[in-house]
Design brief:
The protein is an alpha+beta fold. The chain folds into two domains: 2-179, no CATH class; 185-331, 3-layer Sandwich (Rieske Iron-sulfur Protein), CATH 2.102.10.10. The chain is 32% helix and 17% strand. The protein is built from eight helices and 17 strands. Strands 7-8-9-10-15 form a five-stranded antiparallel beta sheet. A hairpin with a 6-residue loop joins strand 12 (289-291) and strand 13. It is elongated, with a radius of gyration of 35 Å. 25% of the residues are buried. The structure holds FE2/S2 (inorganic) cluster.
């Protein structure tokens, strides 16, 4: 590659009008128009300020995107021409961040076009593998380019660019907040408690032990869920409290998570897979295995809900059950361990 630096007698990488690598004569390029900034120091200063302004504005946009992310409500819609209703938080944060990135790009282009050395380049075809001289020339060209870009001397540009680039990853860190609040105790506990009646999850009927035949499976919920859902209007508790009841011959039960947690061979387990939380009710009566359809984790419900196959790392939590005075199935207590997927605060 030959670079012809205007104002010098020989191009970069040439000696006596010949390319230092190939030895071929350098063909002079046509007339070259110098830029304003090349001949007028005031124009160069003006361009420098314009570049610095773009980088500084970029910093402002990036910081503003963080402020908007925190301050602009994300449950409000605004109507935009052509787009229709859009989320106010998303459009504000996206626009500010996009503008911040755009300004870094335009600042860099403006810098290159107005202030960096104005050279014309010719490139001759040659073998793909670079010779040692080519590599050395390339390294030198990089160093020359760095020196010529003025990044060392143009402090205002360098600092404003470094500021913009340093701030750029910040929104990505702040946006992690959208992963949701820390779960704290909410993932540890469900609304199951002692004497909470067990209802079928489709018809909300209480269940007697004789309603479940050996080999049968019933999807179930706690009776206190309905009132909570009426008041809260969300399904969070349902997602945690869903259970399955299965019945097997008591002699088939190898082990349980607690002494006497079944009722006459009826066992209650969480329905939420301990891998990543899919609801499960694929039960094979013959093997007593519960199979998660998402990634095929398999739990042995006759043996404490232990994992026998698949990616789940924890057994399926068991809910101790009994019957109340009316003969309906109820919880004997809440779950003794957190249900669902592992989480970092689980301990
Ligand atoms: S969610 Fe059940 S195996 Fe992945």
């Amino acid at each position: 590659m030959n670079e012809i630096q205007h104002g010098s007698s020989d191009p970069i990488g040439a000696v006596d009008g010949h390319d230092v690598v190939s030895g071929k004569p350098i063909v002079p390029l046509g007339h070259h128009e110098l830029r304003r900034a090349d001949i007028d120091p005031k124009a160069a200063i003006r361009a420098e300020r314009q570049v610095a302004t773009m980088f500084s504005l970029s910093s402002l946009m990036i910081v503003s995107s963080i402020v908007a992310f925190i301050k602009v409500p994300n449950d409000t819609l605004v109507i935009l021409p052509l787009f229709g209703p859009v989320n106010a938080n998303h459009i504000t944060v996206g626009s500010l961040l996009g503008l911040g990135i755009f300004l870094i790009g335009t600042g860099a282009i403006h810098w290159a076009k107005k202030l960096m050395p104005d050279v014309e380049v010719t490139e001759e075809r040659h073998a793909f593998a670079s010779s040692a001289e080519d590599k050395a020339a390339f390294g030198q060209a990089i160093r020359d380019g760095k020196a010529a870009s003025g990044v060392g001397e143009r402090k205002i540009i360098r600092r404003s660019l470094l500021g913009a680039l340093a701030l750029f990853p910040l929104p990505l860190v702040v946006f992690l907040r959208d992963l949701g609040p820390m779960p704290n105790k909410r993932l540890r506990e469900t609304i199951w408690d002692k004497d909470i009646q067990i209802l079928t999850d489709a018809t909300y009927r209480p269940i007697r032990p004789e309603d479940i035949p050996i080999g049968g499976l019933v999807n179930a919920l706690p009776a206190n869920l309905l009132k909570i859902e009426e008041e809260d209007g969300n399904l969070n508790e349902r997602g945690k409290a869903s259970i399955i009841l299965i019945r097997m011959a008591p002699a088939d039960i190898v082990s349980q998570q607690g002494e006497g947690w079944d009722y006459q061979g009826i066992l209650a387990y969480s329905k939420i897979c301990t891998h990543v939380g899919c609801p499960i009710s694929l039960y094979q009566q013959r093997t007593h295995h519960l199979l998660c359809p998402c990634h095929q984790s398999t739990f042995d419900l006759a043996d404490s809900g232990n994992v026998v196959f698949g990616p789940a790392a924890r057994r399926m939590p068991q809910l101790p059950i009994t019957v109340n005075a009316q003969g309906y199935l109820v919880a004997a207590s809440g779950f003794k361990e957190p249900i669902g997927p592992s989480f970092w605060e689980r301990g």
